[in-house]
């Protein structure tokens, strides 16, 4: 039980850190990459901001995953798979490795972490009940 909780904590930490970094990078990249086309500066950022909205939504899903791993983990995995279809990342290995694969792996890590935590907590509750004579 201690090993599974330790593994869950490690997976949770790695996944959360990676997801914040990846989603933050793509949000900033999408926000800044087309701003010069609209004249640059603050005005260009504001006019280019619709390009960053999907990545802002990803940050929202990452927040959900922080709160509820068993809900957010699969959502992030699904978003990773959807990026394959939407952006065609299978045609470009570097794009696949930097966009889709991290989301799929980190969503899986969060799901596994949530499952391990839930299983360990259920065992702990069952052990407590058996000590107190409850059924």
The average pLDDT score comes to 89
Number of domains: 1
Rg is 19 Å
Number of strands: 0
Overall description:
The chain is mainly alpha-helical and 135 residues long. The protein has one domain. The chain is built from 5 helices and no strands. Helix 1 packs antiparallel against helix 3. The radius of gyration is 19 Å and the shape is elongated. The mean pLDDT is 89.
Structural key phrases:
0% strand, single chain, mainly alpha, 135 residues, 84% helix
How do the helices and strands line up, and which of them pair or pack?
Layout: H1 2-33, H2 41-48, H3 53-67, H4 69-87, H5 93-132
Short description:
By secondary structure, the chain is an all-alpha fold. 84% of the residues lie in helices and 0% in strands.
């Amino acid at each position: 039980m201690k090993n599974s909780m330790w593994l869950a904590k490690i997976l949770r930490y790695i996944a959360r850190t990676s997801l914040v970094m990846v989603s933050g990078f793509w949000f900033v990249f999408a926000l800044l990459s087309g701003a010069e086309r609209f004249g640059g500066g603050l005005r260009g950022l504001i006019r280019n901001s619709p390009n960053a909205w999907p990545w802002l939504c990803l940050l929202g899903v990452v927040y959900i995953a922080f709160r509820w791993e068993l809900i957010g983990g699969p959502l992030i995995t699904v978003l990773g798979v959807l990026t394959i279809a939407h952006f065609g990342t299978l045609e470009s290995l570097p794009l696949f490795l930097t966009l889709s694969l991290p989301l799929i792996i980190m969503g899986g890590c969060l799901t596994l972490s949530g499952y391990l935590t839930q299983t360990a907590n259920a065992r702990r509750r069952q052990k407590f009940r058996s000590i107190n004579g409850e059924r």
